[in-house]
Amino acid sequence: MIKRDLVIVGGGPAGLAAAISAYENGIKDILLLERDQYLGGLLNQCIHTGFGIEYFKEVLTGPEYADRFIRKIKNITSIEISLRSFVVRLEKDKTLTYLKPGGLFTVRPRALIMATGCREKTREMVHIPGTRPAGIFSAGLAQKLINIEGLLPGKEVVIIGSGDIGLIMARRFTLEGAEVKGIIEIQPTTRGLLRNVVQCVEDFGIPIYFNHKVLRIHGSDRVEKVSVAKVDEKMNEIAGTEFDIECDTVLVSVGLIPENELIEMAGVIIDKRTNSPVSTEVNKTSVPGIFVCGNSYKVYDYVDSVTVDSQLAGKMAAEYIKGLD
Asked: Best label site of 155, 156, 235, 262, fewest CB within 10 Å?
């Protein structure tokens, strides 16, 4: 059993900002756990611009934004960074158990900041019927395959939902030589930022179908087509409006869910509708000493906002630790 003043789970933009803030507010004994082999989180695969406009007053790519915090945190010797460290259990007394190459470790911090981000909603969560062929991806996975792994998942693409990652991937697929056959959005307006609609969809002439839904995915070994229909105000299919779009790839971009299973394990009260912690104050939870920041607290539109609120979480954790002395 190792005892630390502060443990932060997650080395994305939220965890980095929280760690630096806690250090600047007087906490020197900090352990940062990150399950990936690199710091930066999702920003590493977001090679498009649009980051840092509010916080740095500059237009940066995701890796550029992350790099500014990574450089800073690596110069702070009292912050221990543990990569490839996967937390598997969290007790009510804040004791963490995590796996990393070499063994299983346990640490008990005086305060804990969870910056675990969020995950994408799946096809099953929005009840899209049909077969289960190859070629169905979440938008974020497709982004990683193209931008990190250098792989093109498909040539003829249909995107379900108009979340920001889906809009951005519509442009990315087009730039890579694929054809985006259409974006299918059940709502009358987009779920993403207006700038992404303009820059990623309209500027590239990609068709977007509002008030439409995918009725079924067809295909045996690989996706062959999707059936689409217009819907009324109650989201019910309008008879006679069905049509098919031939494609070999389907991206699902229907929203994000905060990753909070670990804090729920520790007894934190969770809002079942949003999977966010129930709290009357930003970054706090129902368990004293456990703080949540970034997209694991709520889903933000801008990483700049994540940074600001995560800095507050670091300060709050520092004040909590000082109050224990």
From this structure: 235
Residue the block writes with tokens 């996967």 = 86
| pLDDT tens track for 230-282 | 999 999 999 999 999 999 999 999 999 999 999 999 999 999 999 999 988 89
CA distances from 282 to 11, 251, 278, 306 (A): 20, 33, 10, 12
- Tell me if 121 sits within 8 A of 256, measured CB to CB: yes
Nearest CA among 116, 62, 46, 43 for reference residue 85 = 116
> In terms of DSSP H, where are the helices of the chain?
13-24, 62-74, 139-147, 164-175, 194-196, 261-265, 303-324
| Integer angstrom CA distances of residue 80 from 5, 29, 74, 85 | 12, 8, 9, 12
| Tally: H helices and E strands in the chain | 7, 21
- Domain boundaries 2-119+257-324, CATH class: alpha beta
Beta sheet of 212-219, edge-to-edge order: 212-219, 223-230, 243-246
Q: Quick one: average pLDDT of 111-139? A: 95
Nearest Cα neighbor of 48 from 167, 184, 182 is: 167
Name the residue among 43, 44, 130, 28 with its Cα closest to residue 79. 28
Q: Which part of the chain is CATH 3.50.50.60?
A: 2-119+257-324, 122-252
Cβ neighbour number for residue 101 with a 10 Å cutoff: 7
Q: Under CATH, which number does the domain 122-252 receive?
A: 3.50.50.60
